[in-house]
């Protein structure tokens, strides 16, 4: 379903990400989202909410840098022919799904960092706010796993692509010898 709000706000790139990722329905139906809520509840029930924002501010900037680097590596994997291969081979356009997974992964990290920065500046230790902060941190970590699975999916297609490319070269060589 196309998100008209992002189009209206002239945030076309965000709209592209949101639509390809599956929107709000994809997020709330994700097992990573649900497990993040559960873990966050456990932390809030049995842990401390004092200076909770230190953890995301110490962990996420490094993860964010790594994420952007990994995304760049995925984009340069293969060549244009490979991306055409997966785009034509998969009706759901695996290329856009993988891009959306990485954008989601990075977006969640950025939101978590901004949320923690705001709460740190306000010295917020409210349990509800801490729950949201822990949830964002844990969800960001789970989206790292999801993005890793997306890379695995690309690798599977890349292997098929290389096999097909090798077969094509062998056919061309056999035809050239005749």
Describe it for me?
The structure is a single chain. The protein has one domain (23-177). Helices cover 84% and strands 0% of the residues. The protein has eight helices and no strands. It has helices at residues 4-8, 12-21, 23-28, 31-46, 54-76, 80-89, 94-121, 127-177. α2 (12-21) crosses α7 (94-121), α5 packs parallel to α8 (127-177) and α7 (94-121) runs antiparallel to α8 (127-177). The longest helix has 51 residues, at 127-177. The protein is elongated, with a radius of gyration of 21 Å.
What brief labels describe this structure?
178 residues; mainly alpha
* First and last CA, distance: 53 Å
State the share of residues found in helices, binned by percent.
Answer: over 70%
Biggest sheet features = none
Number of domains: 1
**Average pLDDT across residues?**
83
Please report the number of helical segments. 8
Whole-angstrom Rg: 21 Å
- How many β-strand runs? 0
């Amino acid at each position: 379903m196309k998100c008209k709000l992002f189009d209206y706000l002239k945030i076309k790139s965000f709209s592209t990400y949101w639509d390809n990722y599956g929107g709000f329905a994809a997020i709330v139906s994700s097992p990573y989202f649900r497990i993040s809520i559960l873990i966050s509840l456990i932390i809030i029930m049995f842990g401390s909410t004092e200076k909770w924002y230190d953890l995301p501010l110490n962990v996420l900037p490094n993860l964010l840098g790594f994420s952007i680097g990994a995304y760049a590596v995925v984009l340069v994997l293969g060549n244009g022919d490979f991306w055409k291969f997966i785009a034509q081979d998969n009706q759901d356009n695996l290329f856009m799904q993988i891009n959306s997974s990485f954008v989601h992964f990075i977006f969640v990290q950025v939101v978590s960092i901004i949320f923690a920065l705001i709460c740190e500046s306000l010295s917020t230790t409210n349990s509800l706010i801490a729950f949201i902060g822990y949830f964002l941190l844990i969800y960001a970590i789970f989206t790292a796993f999801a993005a890793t699975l997306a890379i695995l999916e690309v690798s599977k297609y890349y292997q098929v692509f290389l096999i097909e490319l090798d077969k094509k070269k062998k056919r061309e060589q056999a035809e050239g010898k005749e």
